[in-house]
Each structure stands twice: as C-alpha cells, then as structure tokens.
Amino acid sequence: MRVDAVGNKFELAAGTLHYQKLALPGLLLVGLVLRLWHIDGALWYDEAFSAWLAGLPVGQLIEAARGDVHPPTYYLLLAAVTRLTGHSEAALRLPSVLAGLGTIYMVFRLARSLGLSERAALLAGAICTLSPFAIYYSQEPGPTAC
Questions:
Q1: Can you say whether residue 89 is alpha, beta or left, with left for phi > 0 and alpha for psi between -120 and 50 degrees?
Q2: What pLDDT does residue 1 have?
Q3: Three-state DSSP state, 116
Q4: 115 torsion bin: left (phi>0), alpha (psi -120 to 50), beta (else)
C-alpha cells in the first residue's frame, strides 16, 4: 500500500511537469489571439504617421524621423515588415503584436530569474497576457508599443 502512494505522487509530479510545459505556450497562444482580435481597425493619426514614414525610402525615412522624438529604429523595422507583408492595418500592427508576445515571455522569464516559482511566473505571464493595457499597446503601430 505504501508503494502505491509513492507511485501516485510520482505520477502526479509527472503530470504537473507536463502541464507546466504546456502552460507558457498556452499563454502565448491566448496572447496572440487576444492581440490579433480586431487588429484591422482604422488607423489613428499617429499610426498613419508611422505608416507614412515606413513607406518612405530609407534615406528619407531617417531624415524625416529626425524631427520626431523617437529614434528611427522602430520606423526602419516597420518599413522592413511592410515591404514584406504590405501596408494593411494588420501588417502595420504586426511588429507591435510580436513585441507584445515577447513581453509576455520576458515577464515569465524575469519572474523565474527573480527566484519565483514556476506557478508564480505563469501567474505573472497570465496577468500580462490578459492585461487590457498590454493588449491595447500590442495592437498600436508606433514606437511607444515596442
């Protein structure tokens, strides 16, 4: 009888490890769905400005970005993405969506590096995944989103 109790504990521990291996990819999948939901909405003025800058040739883009308070790195990234995917609203928001997913992953990794348990790190990742603020900025094409 004692052996069965120990065996059940090992089975439970193995099941927990399997669950934890799937939890982070699950959070990232939920985060992706939430960030892609209604991603093709109309652009705001600052988003349209980012799209305009991304459509310029690289030399003109850097020159035009000199007057902006943000460095041109984001606009160069956006230009590369839109040259590959087009200038649709969804394509313009793709770098921000990917940055949002990266944020979820990094929140999880930061929590683990601070010595928090796997469960606590997953909770931190879940809060980031479901945060309306994080979702909003993961759908906005602009240098403040990344």
A1: alpha
A2: 47
A3: coil
A4: left
pLDDT reported for residue 69: 83
b/e string for 12-43 if b means 16 or more Cβ within 10 A?
A: eeeeeeeeeeebbeebbeebbebbeeebeeee
- Both tokens of 19, joined, read 């669950």
Residue 109 exposure: Cα atoms within 13 Å on the Cβ side: 6
The stretches in the chain having pLDDT less than 70 are 1-19, 144-146
CA dist., res. 54 & res. 124, Å (int): 34
Q: Which amino acid is at 65?
A: A
**Helical ranges in the chain per DSSP H:** 2-36, 45-54, 58-65, 73-85, 89-113, 118-130, 132-137
Tokens of 28: 């990232």
**Cα(19)–Cα(15) distance, rounded to whole angstroms?**
6
- Residue positions counted in the chain: 146
